[in-house]
Amino acid sequence: MIYKTDYHTHSTFSDGRSSPEEYIAPAIEAGLSEIGFSDHLTLFKEFEDWNMSPEDISPYLFYIENLRKNTKNIKIKTGLEVDFFAGKEEEIRDYLSSLPLDYVIGSVHYLGEKPVDNGPEFYEGKNIDRLFELYLDSVCVAASSDLFDIMGHCDLIRIYGYKTTSDLEPLYRKLAKTMKQHDVAFEVNTNGRNRPLADFYPDRKFLHVFKEENVPVCVNSDAHMPSRVGQYFDEAYELLRYVGFSEMAVFDKRIRRMVPF
Ligand SMILES: [Zn+2]
Ligand SMILES: [Zn+2]
Description:
Blueprint: E1 5-6, H1 21-29, E2 34-41, H2 57-69, E3 75-83, H3 89-97, E4 103-107, E5 110-111, E6 114-115, H4 128-143, E7 150-151, H5 169-181, E8 185-189, H6 207-212, E9 217-220, H7 233-243, E10 247-252, E11 255-260
Parallel strand pairs: 1-2, 2-3, 3-4, 4-7, 7-8, 8-9
Antiparallel strand pairs: 5-6, 10-11
Helix pairs in contact: 4-5
The structure holds zinc ion (2 copies).
The site of one zinc ion has 5 residues, from loops.
């Protein structure tokens, strides 16, 4: 049996539809060995309906710890999906340093003031090549901050299916090299399949770049409801195997180890 983990899930502590507890049975059913919760934490922005405010952190950690104590048959991990903002690295580091987490997913949702995944209007009238370049560069800066264990949906800018005219391989190459250098894993995020993009993140065309640069990988669903835990994982693992990956990143108290699959 493949050792499967799903570290990217959202509960009612942020914008998920169910409590963490409701994810457990579907996770076991999906054949997962571990399930991790990664509710959204967005510092330096007004509270919005999709994220958790810093005051919710203690109840969140307490809840997950309790769930861990009371759950058999699957390991439970505590994570967060934290928004990256360039220039705020030290504040983010200070904030995270006191939290008992197994891993932190670093995500770029904002380019400037606006999130890139809150509707296709963001893209209208903009230079798409330039947006992709800005986005991938921003993920690169996030990866080099040494704040995160996993980069979330590293090319989320593909969400609405916009395509560039430029060749993006050099940008993906730079990103992969940066992740390797800073010991950050990338995720195959299967939730892109449920979005207008209708495919995984990152672009499968560039998965070989991550393999060539030897970047650790994990497979995550980014589920916002229990029925999507472990969704499309067989296909994601097959894809990774095809590209040449044979092991995946597992996290405990922010220490990574690799497990063969
Ligand atoms: Zn995200
Ligand atoms: Zn997410």
